[in-house]
Amino acid sequence: MSITYTERYGEVGASLSFDITEVLFSKRSPFQRVEVVQTAHFGKLLVIDGFVMLTERDEFVYHEMMSHVPLFVHPEPKRVLVIGGGDGGTVRECLRHSRIEHIDLVDIDELVSEACLEHIPAVAEGLKSPRVTCRYEDGVAFVEECREQYDIILVDSTDPISVGEGLFTESFYRNCFNLLGEKGILVAQSESPAWQSSVVKRINQKLKKIFPLVHFYQAFIPTYPSGFWTFCMASKGPHPLNDFREARYRKANLSFRYYNEELHRGAFALPTYVKELLNEI
Ligand code: SAM
């Protein structure tokens, strides 16, 4: 008899099931249930409140696209703030850039990092780097009270429900804007235009009220709802394509599994129905 783990996509009445062989971690924090399960074909799977956060098989797509796109656009990134991202995947990718001096990670739930450090160390290990400070507190309150400045803010959040809801509000985005330096860039995971179009639409409307430049880009993440996923880049000045630092990209000589020079440009090309959703045509 096989055991399966199923994520239900309520908005479209569909689901995705994984064959699993073992439950490795299952605990409740004051905020959410955190689980790590061993799947038959996708490596370990991190689940929060029944939602897939990452699988070892395809986490590189999400983490590379969230990090390297803004890092190769900002003229001189040194200080990064990651909100959410307690699994450590985004921090791991940022650390690959030697010019990054410091990363503050602010996740509401230390249990997420604990589970990943214990069971998915290849993703989480960067959390122990001396260049990283981990704070376990609400990202919404953090950006309201913080007086530091950052070059890049990465919002690596759960969906806009429960504790993640505040990370999709206009006041949160405004506080992030205020923490960014002159050429600052914010990137947020922005859900699936195929199945969560109203969320994508709202993120776009809110960010456009605050940032002079707002551009969505896409990635194919097989284990996320519909597989068609977007990120939103909101910038105080640098343009995602005109300011792409090709020379720096080549000199860095980093090896990626998903991201590359052509894809950096191609990811910003969006289907017509998504452009319509974003009021771009
Ligand atoms: N890649 C993922 C996805 O799109 O499904 C996101 C993964 S990451 C694990 C999401 C993190 O956001 C979780 O660890 C969760 O604890 C954190 N989070 C949710 N609400 C938060 C808040 N208000 N402040 C800080 N972190 C928050």
Radius of gyration: 18 Å
Uncertain runs are none
Strand-pairing-aware structural class: alpha/beta
Q: Give the CA-based shape.
A: globular
Could you tell me the mean pLDDT? 97
- Roughly what fraction of the amino acids lie in strands? 25-35%
Can you tell me about this structure?
This protein is an alpha/beta fold and 281 residues long. The chain has 2 domains: 53 residues, Spermidine Synthase, Chain: A, domain 2 (Roll), CATH 2.30.140.10; 219 residues, Rossmann fold. The protein is 30% helix and 32% strand. The strands form 2 sheets. It has a 7-stranded mixed sheet, with helices on both faces. α1 crosses α2 and α6 crosses α7. The chain is globular, with a radius of gyration of 18 Å. The termini are far apart. The protein binds S-adenosylmethionine. The site of S-adenosylmethionine has 25 residues, from β5, β6, β7 and α5.
